[in-house]
Amino acid sequence: MPGGILELIGRDVVLGDGGYLIELERRGCVATGSGQDKGKQWTPEVAVENPEALRQLHREFLGAGSMVLQALTFFGSREKLTRAGYGAKTEVINQAAVRIARDVAGDRALVAGTISRTQLFEREGPSAAGHVRDLFAEQIRILDDTGVDFLILETFFRLDEMLIALACARSTGLPIIATMTFRPRLTSTADGHSPEECSKTLLGEGAQIVGANCEQEPKRILLVVRAMRQAVDAPVAVQPAAFRTTDETPCFCLLPQFPDELETIHVSRHEFFDLASHARTEGIGYLGGCCGCNAAYIRAMAGGLSATKHRGAGAGALPWV
Ligand SMILES: [Zn+2]
Questions:
Q1: Could you tell me the distance, in angstroms and rounded to a whole number, from the CA of residue 291 to the centre of ligand 1?
Q2: Are strands 110-116 and 68-70 parallel, antiparallel or unpaired?
Q3: Ligand 1 centre and the CA of 311: distance in Å?
Q4: Cis ω on the peptide bond leading into residue 184 (within 30° of 0)?
Q5: Residue 83: CB partners within 8 Å, gap ≥ 6?
Q6: Which of 32, 110, 186, 318 has most Cβ atoms within 10 angstroms of its Cβ?
Q7: Ligand 1 mean position to 155 CA, how many Å?
Q8: Ligand 1 being an ion, which residues bring their Cβ within 5 A of it?
């Protein structure tokens, strides 16, 4: 694909891909941690255990219009993989994930390496910072050496942990998209920083695009990215989840339907079409989907983007804002 991610975002909204782990769990290839395999909780060993399933999902996203394929390296740190029994294969799993994405992408899409929170800050507190830094440094080095086009730092609940990942990512010289996840409240990260503060800080610390992903459906996450967008002079990234949340619990992973009854709270693809239709007027530069977004949702967003392409703006007000 000609041009790097920043050049593409400079031209128009870039359509990313959707969520891998929840979709692959539905297909029987990923464990939720709620069953017998307690250690295997949303870990990405499918890249070596069932590479054809991963390859197929990449193909579906590409066919739906994704301009970026994310290598399935979410929760791929050595520590998280060790808890799942795959620590010795950390390098192999991360390399395989990048190679599979690249193989499917060919010259039709960019490949992003994904780095997510380690969960150590939640378990051990800020004293884990040194260990966390080593884990990010190792995983980012593997992704960079294997050959990703850029990095997406995503699903960070705490700004302090994100800043460690960002410092490690910056040393590669690769473009960086950094997206926070807001829970349990929309107004601040778990360590007490507002969306506005996050976007300013992350841009100041070397991310090129900032935004939010996961936990909320389009209509709720839009409130967060609007706040982020208004604080900075740059396009934002948004990758909503596809599950209906509530005012009391605005994050699907804290709802009782997570993880085994998610089908009962699935949001329709029309909400994603509507978001995409207004992406340009909302200042969104990178638009994808997170948990619950399969290829049908990406296709709906591709439709929303192309429906408004020649009008230069979204068609009227969003139906839900
Ligand atoms: Zn997600």
A1: 4
A2: parallel
A3: 31
A4: yes
A5: 39, 41, 43
A6: 110
A7: 7
A8: 214, 290-291
> Which run of H or of E encompasses 116?
strand 110-116
Quote the ligand 1 centre to 257 CA distance (angstroms).
15
Residue 34 has pLDDT above 90, yes or no: no
pLDDT at 321 (0 to 100): 60
Distance 243 CA to ligand 1 centre (A): 10
| Residue 17 alpha carbon to ligand 1 centre in Å | 12
CA of 53 to the centre of ligand 1 (A): 19
Answer yes or no: are the C-beta atoms of 207 and 176 closer than 8 Å.
Answer: yes
From CA 187, how far away is CA 168, in angstroms rounded?
Answer: 27
Give the tokens for residue 183. 């829970």
What is the mean predicted confidence (pLDDT) over 127-145?
98
Cβ contacts of 99 within 8 Å, gap of 6 or more: 146
Burial class (CB in 10 A: 0-12, 13-18, 19+), 123: exposed
Q: Are the C-beta atoms of 105 and 111 separated by less than 8 Å?
A: yes
